[in-house]
Design goal:
globular, 9-stranded mixed sheet, 6-stranded parallel sheet, Dihydrodipicolinate Reductase, domain 2, 512 residues, Rossmann fold
Length: 512
């Protein structure tokens, strides 16, 4: 059976939920932070919710010497610390039996041959049926080495009736050329339908619900266009600074770290056309069309339509914090941006002349990610004699932390006078459905086990996003007359230039 037939039961109308299949999950970089904080806790929560297939083996692959029991103990401590739900001893005991450790250097060909033999044994012992899910929880510099050795060991090829898939963590390159090289490396061993590029923002419940909000509610889709929408804002704010990621962040910055993947993904969900069905490629086809329609910036436009900033000394929640350049591991003369604001235009029929303002920043007063859709104002003529300025209707989609949707509308204040004020209709996932949303990695791991690539980025989508971002990066490093790097105090909402970006259009940022 081909991978394509396994991947899309939705296309044939069989189910609205893809079913995860028995498999061995091999995590490269098993002693790293991602495995401890996210991956193993996510797998435990899937097991606790009763959704993990009974025949699953999780094999941690890393360089440090360690026994299976030592690995299980380490993972138990991490899961108790980082799990979404309290760890129950009886569930952990059963889950822990599926955890194994394989010690090898990433470049040791013999280590992969031994891994292949061990996976074959686990097929017989655990019933994993020859299905393999390889998770690259390592730095991208290791990807090529791992791919080459998987290929040499024959682990990229599954026997008849089984499958082999690879999950790649971001960043998918640092620019268009490196992204293309990385894609060529991966696809020398794994076909596109075997390749799952993970973006945890798309695993969040509210991000997934954007499609339902738009296309399952007749009250929104007829208004979702240039005739009724004034503008859109997408904000990702963090109170945290660079923390212990200075080595990575100095070479990435906010634009590459957040805009190229997370925020452009959200923009695509807001901007896409209705897909022909819920199949992975149908949805991703429409997302790619949005990225293709993004108006590229000229060097002159980067100076007026993009703001980059870096946090200076300030205070967060009353606590003094250092400037970015004073953080451990940061160049004292660093030009790396910790804040970016962009005015983006989508050149298609639906979004013509509707600006989409995107901002992301560290050391802001509040943490949160949201999308706000600002509708055009109703005609003022009926209320002119009351001398009241009508506010816009605003639809807010909260991605994190308080997942939900709210709608601001106008209402008359009770009483004898005719006074209008804004009121809010609010929907919270936790209170409405009586249970917490699963973590993003839980959903994405289940989807990869089921062969559902809907929430994963496709090669052409990644490369086109990099082409859009590269034009900005090239303007920033221009030898002459490059746009300046603005500063903003930690604890503020960013540089003044970002406020001016909207003020020139007669608009302002929505406060989280």
């Amino acid at each position: 059976m081909s991978e394509k037939h396994l991947a899309n039961p939705l296309r044939e109308g069989l189910s609205t939920k893809a079913v995860p299949q028995p498999c061995a999950v091999v995590i490269f970089g098993a002693t790293g932070d991602l495995t401890h904080r996210k991956l193993v806790p996510a797998l435990y929560n899937i097991a606790a919710d009763g959704e993990l297939p009974p025949a699953v083996a999780v094999v941690g692959f890393a360089r440090r010497p360690k026994t299976d029991d030592e690995f299980r103990k380490e993972m138990e401590e991490a899961t108790r610390k980082f799990s979404r739900q309290t760890v129950r001893d009886e569930i952990w005991e059963g889950f822990a039996k599926s955890l194994y450790y394989h010690q090898s250097e990433f470049g040791d060909e013999a280590g992969y041959q031994k891994l292949a033999a061990r996976l074959d044994r686990l097929d017989k012992e655990s019933g994993t049926r020859g299905n393999r899910l390889f998770y690259f929880a390592t730095s991208p510099e290791q990807f090529e080495t791992i791919v080459e050795n998987l290929k040499k060991a024959g682990l990229n090829k599954a026997r008849e009736g089984s499958w082999a898939r690879v999950i790649l963590e971001k960043p998918f390159g640092t620019d268009l050329n490196s992204a293309r090289h990385l894609n060529r490396v991966v696809q020398s061993a794994f076909s596109e339908d075997q390749t799952y590029r993970i973006d945890h923002f798309l695993g969040k419940e509210t991000a997934q619900n954007i499609l339902v909000l738009r296309f399952a509610n007749a009250i929104f889709e007829p208004l979702w266009n240039t005739r009724y929408i004034d503008h859109v804002q997408i904000t990702a704010a963090e109170t945290l600074g660079v923390e212990n990621r200075a080595g990575y962040y100095e070479s990435a910055g906010a634009l590459r770290d957040m805009v190229q993947n997370h925020l452009l993904q959200l923009l695509c969900l807001v901007g896409m056309e209705p897909p022909t069905d819920l199949g992975a490629d149908s949805i991703r086809d429409e997302k790619v069309k949005v990225v293709r329609s993004l108006r590229r910036f000229t060097e002159a436009e980067v100076k007026t339509q993009v703001v980059r900033g870096q946090y200076a000394q300030g205070a967060i929640n009353g606590q003094a914090v250092a400037a970015y350049r004073a953080e451990n591991g940061v160049d004292p003369k660093s030009q790396t941006e910790t804040y970016v604001a962009l005015r983006i235009l989508v050149d298609n029929w639906r979004w013509a002349d509707v600006p989409i303002y995107v901002r992301v920043g560290k050391r802001l007063p509040k943490s949160g990610t949201e999308i706000s859709v600002h509708f055009k104002k109703a005609p003022q003529v009926l209320f002119n004699r009351e001398s009241q300025a009508l506010d816009q209707n605003v639809l807010v989609i909260r991605i994190q932390p308080d997942e939900g949707i709210s709608l601001r509308m106008q209402a008359k204040v009770p009483g004898t006078s005719f006074r209008i004020e804004s009121v809010k209709m609010d929907f919270h996932y936790g209170t409405s459905f009586g249970k917490a949303s699963p973590e993003a990695y839980e959903r994405l791991l289940l989807d990869a086990m089921a062969g559902d690539a809907t929430l994963f980025a496709r090669r052409d989508e990644v490369e086109r996003a990099w082409a859009f971002i590269d034009a900005i990066e090239e303007a920033w490093v221009a030898k002459e007359d490059a746009p300046k790097l603005c500063t903003y105090p930690a604890g503020s909402w960013g540089p003044e230039e970002a406020d001016e970006l909207l003020a020139r259009d007669g608009r302002r940022w929505r406060r989280l």
